[in-house]
Amino acid sequence: MDMSLETVGIDSGDKLDDIEHHFRVLAGPGAGKTYWLVNHIKEVLHNSKRLDKSRKVACITYTNTAVEIIRDRLGSSSNQVEVSTIHSFLYRHIIKPYLHFIADDYGFNISRLDGHDDILISRSMTRDWLNQHTNQSSLKNPYSLKQLRDFPENLLRVTSWLSSIRYNLDVNNELVTTADRTKSLINGRPLSKVCLELLEIDLEAFKRLHWNKGLLHHDDVLFFSFQIIKNHPFVLDVLRTKFPYFLIDEFQDSSPIQVELLRLIGEKETIVGIIGDKAQSIFSFQGADPSQFESFELEGIKDYWINTNRRSTQEVINLLNHIRCDFKQQGQDGFNGSKPIIYIGDRLEVLHKINNELSGKCLITLSWQNITANALKKDVEGVDLNYKLFDDLKKIDSSNNSSRPRLIIPCIKAVELCREKKIKEALNELKRYFGRSNKGKRDALDLLFLLNSRYDEYCNKPLMTLYNILQTDSGIDGLSNFRAGNPKTFYDNTNYKGLALCVNIIEDTSNNITIHKSKGAEFDNVLLTLNSEKELDFITVPNLDESEEHRLKYVAISRAIQNLFITVPELSKKKAELIENLGLVDIIRLDDSLTHSTALN
Ligand SMILES: Nc1ncnc2c1ncn2[C@@H]1O[C@H](COP(=O)(O)OP(=O)(O)OP(=O)(O)O)[C@@H](O)[C@H]1O
User: Fold this and answer.
1) Nearest atom of ligand 1 to the alpha carbon of 38
2) Can you tell me which residues bind ATP (predicted)?
3) How far is the CA of 359 from the centre of ligand 1 (A)?
């Protein structure tokens, strides 16, 4: 951390002398940033003369789970605080009241606006877009309009590429719409550069097709908020009046558009406070840029730094300190435990062994990939799981008149969400198929009931079993039979469970989650699962500044309060010695451990 002379060291129990200046709090994991933030909000509520019934503190954090934690900790004080994610905040205070100002300029059908969602891109929408593309006559063999539109694989290439549309800011702080060219790669072949250059011209027209239907993607919330503020600056004044204090936790994962919005809000009247840690920046794939935290500037901003770790045992902190080179955290006096352990062996066996040893205490597994987390949840073996089965299904069952994937994929996602008690999200999946009318909502509920009550009949069978149930008992018309061919082979030979493993459970609160979902949380006992010994480089040659992969693992191990375990299938003697020589972790080979040996060889 680049600590300037003006950076003031504080403790997570400290109060600021003056609540009326912008601030930045920098600190490592477990330092008590969220703890401090909650106390600071209470301080503001207590001392500020600028708050009343309609003037509140805005507190922005990254996930709905974090929102709940902060609300909980605020207790009854939370009436005067609006705690939310940035998307919910902007939707409520900018999009809903003001989108109608600019809706016509963007062809947005405001009468159909109904929240924001993760909008899935359909091939029919891609086709509609191609059919009206400004450059369609310039598209040439092998990617002519007809070839892009009518060859299923090409259509998939365009659709996949369009799914990566993002908004960013250019050097003049103007919004630009981009899509990631590499995402057109299907079956080893991408669209050509020439073709993509021609198509790129009209990306906004593609968004307009959705906006015409009142569909608002999460990213569109940022896009429209920014446009509204730029074109109608009085909206900023309204926000500043309503929120004299604007505090943001986990700032390191903000996107450049969010950062610019906050900077604009903080230009006058509103006090902006940002809290974060650049070494915990793990969302670059969503546009976050770790350098923004330290470079964020507002007039008179003061920097504070917390150098303690109030979460973990000294043994866990020793490992964290080894990995981090910009500063060292101090632990709490006398809070000691066992050295972290690296287990070498099959991860499911490791999980069972640790669970046995912890005898009933809760162990949380953290994995990089969603499919690994799901496999651990469902007790499935293997490291070579196919996380692309939904893509394969769409590709293989992709003839123009097949509506099967459009139904069966939401069904699988819905029932898996339902089994994790995410009923609202489950119904939302099915509403993608049935629509959002009252009838659509009723149909979604009926189908969810059917899928859930018959789960045991298909959960360990080929996908065809589920499809047959849908054909015979869902009441949905027009579900076509199979002829011999690749789609039938896929449905006959692919086990439902394989697809279930690919479902992403948002805000997963189970004991087996991805590292990204563990952000901000802490657990007594943590098991980090790794797929190969290369992934232990974050310990042997750590580089948090340049490697997001290393930061991700740093975040994972810093969730542990008491016991930290890491598992890897194999470990060469050379690398094991390298790690052993650090003296910070014990290494146990599972085979040896069966005879209670902790020896290396
Ligand atoms: N001053 C304090 N007194 C008592 N407990 C504290 C104090 N500060 C922090 N804690 C406790 O330490 C733990 C870590 O705090 P917190 O979650 O706020 O850290 P953080 O900096 O936000 O962590 P991360 O960035 O890793 O998510 C929590 O259990 C919190 O309750």
Assistant:
1) 18
2) 27-34
3) 27
Rounded Cα gap, residues 459 and 407, in angstroms: 17
Sign of CA dihedral 259, 261, 262, 263: positive
What is d(CA 365, CA 372) in angstroms, rounded to the nearest whole number?
10
560 Cβ below 6 A of ligand 1: no
Atom of ligand 1 nearest to the CA of 559: 26
CA dihedral of 311, 313, 314, 316, whole degrees rounded to 10: -90
Q: Is 35 in the pocket of ligand 1 (CB under 6 A)?
A: yes
pLDDT for residue 221: 98
Distance 537 CA to ligand 1 centre (A): 28
Long-range interactions of 426-432: CB distance < 8 A, separation 24+: 428/117, 432/120
Would you say 279 is a known binding-site residue? Answer: no
Q: Which residues of 200-231 are buried (b: 16+ CB within 10 A; e: fewer)?
A: eebbeebbeebbeebbbbebbbbbbbbbbbbe
**Residue 27 marked ligand-binding:** yes
Angle, CA of 130, 163 and 434, to the nearest 5°: 85
Question: Does an H or E element contain 565, and which?
Answer: strand 560-568
Low-confidence ranges of the chain (pLDDT < 70): 1-5, 383, 399-402, 593-601
**Is residue 523 within 8 Å of residue 558, measured between CB atoms?**
no
Q: How distant is the alpha carbon of residue 170 from its chain centre?
A: 24
- Give the residue, out of 10, 12, 36, 333, with the most ligand 1 atoms within 8 A of its beta carbon, to mutate for a pocket test: 12
What does the H/E/C string look like for 375-391? HHHCCCCCCCCCCCHHH
Q: How far apart are CA 584 and CA 321, in angstroms?
A: 10
ipTM: 0.99
C-alpha distance across the termini of the chain, in Å: 39
- What is the CA(407)–ligand 1 centre distance, in A? 44
Ligand 1 atom at minimum distance from 276 CA: 25
Nearest CA to ligand 1 atom 8: 32
Say what the pLDDT of residue 402 is: 66
- In sequence order, the β-bridge partners of residue 9 are 305
